Amino acid sequence: MAYIVPSSPETLADRELYTRSRLVEVACLDCLVRVKVRKNSDHHTSIQWNQEAGDCATFAELSRREGGRPVHQACPRLLASIEAAVREGVVPIGAGVDPIETSDG
Amino acid sequence: MTETRTLDTGSVPERFARGWHCLGLERDFTDGKPHAVQAFGGKLVVWADSQGELHVLDGYCRHMGGDLTQGTVKGDEVACPFHDWRWGGDGKCKAIPYARRVPLRARTHRYESVVRNGQLLIWHDPEGSEADLEALPPVLEGVGTDKYTEWTWNVIPVENAHCREIIDNVVDMAHFFYIHFAFPTNFRNVFEGDKATQFMESTGRPDMKAQGYGDEDLILKSEATYYGPSYMINWLDTDYKGFLTKVILINCHVPTGPNSFNLQYGLVVEKPEGVDEETADYIGRRYAEMFGEGFMQDVNIWLNKAPVQNPLLCEEDGPVYQLRRWYEQFYVDKADIEPEMVERFEFEVDTTKANENWRAEVAENLARKEAEDREAEKAKA
Ligand code: FES
Ligand SMILES: [Fe+2]
């Protein structure tokens, strides 16, 4: 028991909900990267990379430049690819991850 | 009908984070005296040897527990006030003036330290690993030269909160409006490896102008990165009607106990062209005061809030759970770091709804204020 341990099992369910639910895979149209995406609205984007995602060509390019800061904001090509996926209806724009109210609930 | 939601307050972690922790400015430790720093549930001693190099040891003498921070520096060593045992920067006892020889086992806990950008950083790892120099914050080009003002430095003790509270700020878009009276218009996060970053664009709040928070003409671009668990560099570029200021703010902390920490902040200002030394320093001090007020606004919240393991989020909130997943890497053994804790994650907060509502709130406040002023004017007449 090293880190802050939650005292209820529901907390773990919440963590699962907020970090893992409703993710859709999107491939970059310019390089070989594949990421998991969620969009709650037009202006919201959540992008989860993982070990199998591959390396972003644009980031590699940015890292080679001198004097830059070590952290890169989103890759514009990947964002364009996500926008395309949204237009094609592959990535749904939906109301967050909260459970939807059911009529009998 | 949905159930009542309860707060899961969780448990306080049993260990302190692995990583570099900043203890303060180098210049504050070089006066030839031993200094006490509260950290990691105990006390450390910091001193400079005859070459000016800083050393950090556990604060208590391994002989009979004397407080080394109340001792003296003799040559390169710190001498205990109780029986004068001399401790070297390598953690070994070098001499016992009244003894024939030094016991072989006279070795104390030493912290590896590095001075970077004029600040003293030490490596802490409950597993006792060697310091990871790769994990150090970057060298700040030009800091320490004529180009920038000198560091300001302040410490705020936070007695009753875990330092994760300040980490949470990285993703907390909305609190900037309510607590810090700023108006965020653009807000993004990137977590990757041992770094967590917040990109924010904001303006002042016109309804708080009289309180000194600027107005919509004050445009702020901020990029703030945590390098490891405790040390953040915040690059702040402000533009007030074409007058540009570049500030580098350090926001760092040292845990002092399981549920307390010392918050520290310091900044330098890039000296604007055509501005003399004195004015530049004045600008630096003014910014330091302003950020000091800002941190106190946070502290007042932390001291009174409940710890929450299961925050309930709305769609306009930042990625709290992902940030905490990132932060957890510093509290588990290195071998137990899960890929998810370090994999790249990006998030853009949708500020459109918030901005719409806040603009209305600001307008309402301004109108009310104007009406009040008119009333007061009338009463005077
Ligand atoms: S306790 Fe330090 S010298 Fe005896
Ligand atoms: Fe804050």
Sequence-ordered SSE layout with sheet pairings:
The complex is a heterodimer of chains A (105) and B (381).
Chain A: H1 9-20, E1 24-27, E2 34-38, E3 45-48, H2 57-64, H3 76-87
Antiparallel strand pairs in A: 1-2, 2-3
Chain B: E1 19-25, E2 35-39, E3 42-48, E4 54-58, E5 72-74, E6 77-79, E7 86-87, E8 93-95, E9 110-111, E10 113-116, E11 119-124, E12 154-158, H1 164-168, H2 175-178, E13 182-192, E14 195-204, E15 218-227, E16 231-240, E17 243-257, E18 260-269, H3 277-304, H4 320-328, H5 339-342, E19 345-349, H6 352-380
Antiparallel strand pairs in B: 1-11, 2-3, 3-4, 4-9, 5-6, 6-7, 7-8, 10-11, 12-18, 13-14, 13-19, 14-15, 15-16, 16-17, 17-18
The complex binds FE2/S2 (inorganic) cluster (FES) and fe (ii) ion (FE2).
Task: Walk me through the structure.
The complex is a heterodimer of chains A (105) and B (381). Chain A is built from 3 helices and 3 strands; from the N terminus they run αβββαα. Chain A has helices at residues 9-20, 57-64, 76-87; strands at residues 24-27, 34-38, 45-48. In chain A, 30% of the residues lie in helices and 12% in strands. Chain B is α+β, with helices and mostly antiparallel strands and 381 residues long. Chain B is built from 6 helices and 19 strands. Chain B has helices spanning 164-168, 175-178, 277-304, 320-328, 339-342, 352-380; strands at residues 19-25, 35-39, 42-48, 54-58, 72-74, 77-79, 86-87, 93-95, 110-111, 113-116, 119-124, 154-158, 182-192, 195-204, 218-227, 231-240, 243-257, 260-269, 345-349. In chain B, the strands form 4 sheets. Chain B has an 8-stranded antiparallel β-sheet with strand order 12-18-17-16-15-14-13-19. The model of chain B has no long low-confidence stretch (mean pLDDT 95). Classes of the chains: A alpha+beta (105), B alpha+beta (381). The A-B interface holds A 1-8, 10-11, 14-15, 18-19, 40-51, 53, 67, 69-74, 95-96, 101, 105 and B 1-2, 6, 8-15, 138, 141, 162, 164, 188, 190, 192, 195, 197, 199, 223, 225, 235, 307, 309-310, 313-315, 319-322, 325, 328, 331-333, 339-340, 343-352. Strand 3 (45-48) of chain A pairs antiparallel with strand 19 of chain B, so a sheet runs across the interface. The complex binds FE2/S2 (inorganic) cluster and fe (ii) ion (FE2). The site of FE2/S2 (inorganic) cluster has 10 residues of chain B, from loops.
